[in-house]
Amino acid sequence: MNRFFTLFSFSLLALISTRSSQYDGVWASETESLTRFLLESARDAEFLEWLKRVRRRIHEHPELAFEEKLTSQLIRNELDSLGIEYEWPVAETGVVATVGSGAQPWFGLRADMDALPIQELVEWEHKSKINGKMHACGHDAHVTMLIGAAKLLQNNRHKLKGTVKLVFQPGEEGHAGAYFMIKEGSLDGVRSIFGLHVDPSMSIGTIGSKPGPMLAGSGRFSVIIQGKGGHAASPHRSRDPILALSMVILALQHIVSRETDPLESRVVSIGYIRGGEALNVIPETVEFGGTFRFMDSESYSYLKQRIKEVIETQAAVQQCNAVVDFMEDKLRPYPATINHPMMYEHAKRVGENLLGDENVKQSPMTMGAEDFSFYAQKMPAALFWIGARNETTMKSVKGLHSPHFVIDEDVLPVGASLHAAVALSYLDNHAEKIAA
Ligand SMILES: [Zn+2]
Ligand SMILES: [Zn+2]
């Protein structure tokens, strides 16, 4: 807590110094004082305790993609008590709330609601109460930060020069919830959008991102190789699908190492193999599957075509037959997440005002994927990592999707005020341009 308040004290000092001149007038002093007011509200001990209570309730009741009924209900209850109107259901469990005048410009803030099929191994008072399900990607914190932003914005609604749309979406973990939110028209009219994702390796009070490509696109495949089973001592009477699988996996690795420009980022990884049960039997079939990552639609098409060709051809060499399923009807591939330079710059400047220049980092690109990319395809968008690590209390970093994943809850007011400040100042800037 001390560290947290120290950071905010720094931020206040930074804000009090007149920074608007550095930004060519983009940061009007009125916006700065509003931002400062949001921060002061977020510092309030009662506010922090409320955020913790909300997050812990969600953490105890994790729900998987498109099953986020309780989480959605909790969000709506909080919005009701804040007097905020919302659209529901969108894409099964999604909620889109509206704060402000209703008039343009409309600015979007996004949180994802779903948990993962992981058994929590962290022993604490608010451990997941659902066996085999856990908020191991911090989406419980994302929802809480956005509810916190809703309260901050609603308390200052008369100062908003437009409208903020709070987008609570289902199914980020592989199920393209964002795609379905857009498909149902709930983002129509929204001009720009901002999102936060917790990062357990970054300290509380820091954020990071980069302009342009930030995360990869992702596709998946599962394969059945059909051979002819028989006695392992008479391989000539069989068609060995295990040998075919071995050749296939080695050949798949050549698509990136031999067919891809070394300066281009692509990945093909196999995640599972299932086949055979006895030491002396050649099985009838084997199954395997994996994921592929890419940075643009051309690479996606190329990888998809070559993965299919390589698997089918290599299986045929071993007199086996392969069926490749990209599962796109159930698991829609994600495009790469590309941050819009202007939106990135805007959020970066707000972050610098809130947290200090030194606490806004340039993050490296990674080949992870996020369905925030669907919003970024539709409108100027920026996704930022937000630090959730307390070096004093956390001895080591437990990564996203780990059963040991933990966050420091002091991230919650930082995220809530950052969300609110990014939206509020976007509306200020945009309204000024219209007026000009
Ligand atoms: Zn995740
Ligand atoms: Zn996530």
Description:
With 436 residues, the chain is of the alpha/beta class. It is 39% helix and 23% strand. The chain has 11 helices and 16 strands. The chain has an 8-stranded mixed beta sheet with strand order 1-2-4-3-5-16-6-15, with helices on both faces. Strands 10-12-8-13 form a 4-stranded antiparallel beta sheet, with helices on one face. A hairpin with a 3-residue loop joins strand 1 and strand 2. The longest helix has 25 residues. The protein is elongated. It binds zinc ion (2 copies). The site of one zinc ion has 4 residues, from loops.
Please provide a brief summary of the model.
This protein is an alpha/beta fold.
Map the helices and strands.
Layout lengths: L1 H15 L12 H15 L1 H16 L8 H14 L2 E6 L3 E7 L5 E7 L26 H17 L7 E7 L7 H7 L6 E14 L3 E3 L2 E4 L1 E10 L3 E2 L9 H19 L7 E9 L5 E2 L2 E10 L2 H21 L3 E5 L11 E3 L1 H15 L4 E3 L9 H7 L2 E9 L21 H25 L1
Helix pairs in contact: 1-2, 1-9, 2-11, 3-5, 4-5, 5-11, 7-8, 9-11
The site of one zinc ion has 4 residues, from loops.
GO biological process, one term: auxin metabolic process
Protein name: Peptidase M20 dimerisation domain-containing protein
Keywords: Hydrolase, Manganese, Metal-binding, Signal
Helix-residue proportion? 25-40%
Bound molecules: zinc ion
The termini sit apart by 43 Å
Rough outline: elongated
Largest sheet report: 8 strands, mixed
Domain Peptidase M20 dimerisation: 217-315
Organism: Buddleja alternifolia
Protein name: Peptidase M20 dimerisation domain-containing protein
Family: Belongs to the peptidase M20 family.
